[in-house]
Amino acid sequence: MEENRNNNETEEEIYRFDITNEFIQTLPLSGYEGEILLLDRQDQVFPAIKKIREHKIIGIDTESRPSFHKGEKHPISLVQIATPDTVYLFRVNKTGMTDEIRRLLSDRRILKVGIGLRQELTEIFRDKRPKEGIADLEVIARHNGFKKRGAKALAAHFLGIRISKSAQTTNWERDNLTKKQIDYAATDAWICLEIYKCMVESPEIEINPENIN
Description:
The protein is about 35% helix and about 15% strand. By secondary structure, the protein is of the alpha/beta class. The chain has one domain (about 15-200): Ribonuclease H-like superfamily/Ribonuclease H (Nucleotidyltransferase, domain 5, 2-Layer Sandwich), CATH 3.30.420.10. Helix 8 (about 150-160) packs across helix 9.
């Protein structure tokens, strides 16, 4: 998406879709209501990954302990993976970022979809970030003319729902996650899978190798 074609061009002419906060507030508050598996032991990781590998497309998100000071950054605490019937929450601050998780996230045969996924995978893999089997919804939205490309805006546009982000800046390294945190984390991975399905089915959205990751 070009930022500006000339100085006289307005935002309305640049962006095809502008999801306003006012519009989002009119939508019903909703979230994931299916099965959630919370995994905080290493012996739970392999069986979960084996089940996830039965699917060709999965939704991905991560959470980290929030930083409130300049230059402060914390490692990923939680990796959320959504399949059509289950969301798996891997507490990697307890299990570690295991080889099984890394191999899944780098497997080009399984399409991983997420919002800001390139940045999250870069944090996990550094300069060896996988570039195949990835669909970054933020990138797709940018190429298709969306002004706002975050989770709330895309969920509103494609799913017709309003999602809560109130748990985003909570402590993801606490010993026991709250129900609010668990529901929030599961919803963030689930919407990625659902938004991608809607994008694929929409005649207004173009998805090709140049705008997918």
